[in-house]
Write a structure and sequence with these properties.
- The chain is α/β, with parallel strands linked by helices and about 325 residues long.
- It has 13 helices and 8 strands.
- It has helices spanning about 1-10, 20-30, 50-65, 100-120, 130-140, 140-150, 155-175, 195-200, 205-210, 255-260, 275, 280-295, 315-325, and strands at about 35-40, 70, 125-130, 180-185, 220-225, 240-245, 265-270, 300-305.
- Helix 5 (about 130-140) packs across helix 7.
Length: about 325
């Protein structure tokens, strides 16, 4: 009886929290007034840090009152996409001077504008693709990248090391500009693209180098991208506080992940399902099921990955309204 009474006492309603307090409590496993909620899609602004900040404010703050302001990766890494035509082209990757790079300046400016506008009551994170992801984007296609990786590993390692160092510098800059952490998106961490041994060689070491730049952040979110066969267990010990993935599509389920890790989990909605095209009762059913799977502890309710850009706002409005009244455990 005493144990049950103690549990009941710990689950008494919590007074209203700011977004910062709510998310931080969720990350640390504390009580929350409601489950934190976030969702996102790409904005594709005209290409300045201020435009990126304005799009972020409009969507995350003004339109949907979300608990995390997530800056999207719509200002790209400064290397042309699909431009690698020969093995020697990988040697074109160079160290980036943060004072001279528009990539660094504009993204840091977006964070600074958001922090200045939102104050310190809203967590801000910057979305950054992993070194391997940036390298794959630079290749003409995936087949070319994998061929170069297998046939010329030394050249690929040199390029990945440079990208990782550049990203570590960038992460330090954006945290210094006011970000609470990064949304670090892994590409290739799935057996549909490469073997586990290959990711351990060409992915993981450079992920960890880049993430050193965000070591002072308290809200570092690792997103394991993919629709099936994720190497999820490989990411469990990354130095982050939150894990994000398409739990409804790729798995593991939130319940299965809860057994694997004590980190805060982020997910619950199928980004291509009801959140994108309704109906309302399915949006609510997924949200309630997610809370049932996690107990509402160390959990942020979110889409598994970016919702399609043409998603009808009414479904996002519905999702946000539903999140307001969900049980906390």
């Amino acid at each position: 009886m005493a144990k049950n009474a103690g549990n009941a006492a710990r689950r008494l309603p919590v007074d209203y929290m700011t977004r910062f307090e709510r998310v931080q409590a969720a990350v640390n496993g504390g009580d929350v007034d409601r489950v934190p909620v976030c969702f996102w899609h790409h904005f594709q602004p005209e290409g300045s840090g201020r435009a990126m900040a304005e799009a972020t404010l409009r969507f995350f703050d003004d339109e949907y009152d979300l608990d995390i302001a997530k800056v999207m990766p719509d200002i790209p890494y400064p290397f042309p996409k699909k431009s690698i035509s020969s093995v020697d082209d990988w040697r074109l990757f160079e160290p980036i001077d943060p004072l001279r790079s528009r990539y660094f300046r504009e993204r840091a400016e977006a964070v600074a504008v958001l922090r200045d506008t939102l104050g310190f009551d809203t967590p801000v994170v910057m979305t950054v693709f992993s070194p391997l992801a940036e390298a794959m984007y630079a290749a003409r296609d995936r087949e070319q990248f994998l061929a170069h990786m297998q046939e010329h590993p030394v050249v690929l390692h040199e390029a990945l090391a440079i990208i990782a160092d550049n990203l570590a510098t960038h992460l330090r800059d954006i945290v210094a500009a006011g970000a609470d952490g990064v949304f670090f998106a892994l590409q290739g961490c799935t057996r549909t693209i490469m073997t586990e041994q290959q990711y351990r060689e060409f992915g993981r070491p450079y992920d960890l180098i880049a993430l050193r730049g965000a070591s002072s952040g308290w809200l570092n979110i690792l997103h394991v991208h993919g629709e099936k066969d994720l190497m999820f267990d490989m990411a469990l010990d990354y130095p982050v506080q939150v894990l994000s993935w398409s739990d409804r599509i790729a798995g593991p389920s939130l319940r299965e992940a809860r057994v694997k890790t004590s980190k805060c989990l982020m997910g619950g909605w199928n980004e291509f399902g009801a959140l994108h095209k309704g109906p309302e009762d399915q949006i609510e059913a997924e949200a309630r099921d997610a809370i049932a799977q996690t107990g509402g502890r160390k959990f942020i309710l979110a889409n598994g990955c970016s919702v399609p850009d043409d998603t009808d706002p009414r479904w996002l409005e519905t999702a946000r309204a539903i999140a307001e009244d969900l049980p906390v455990g």
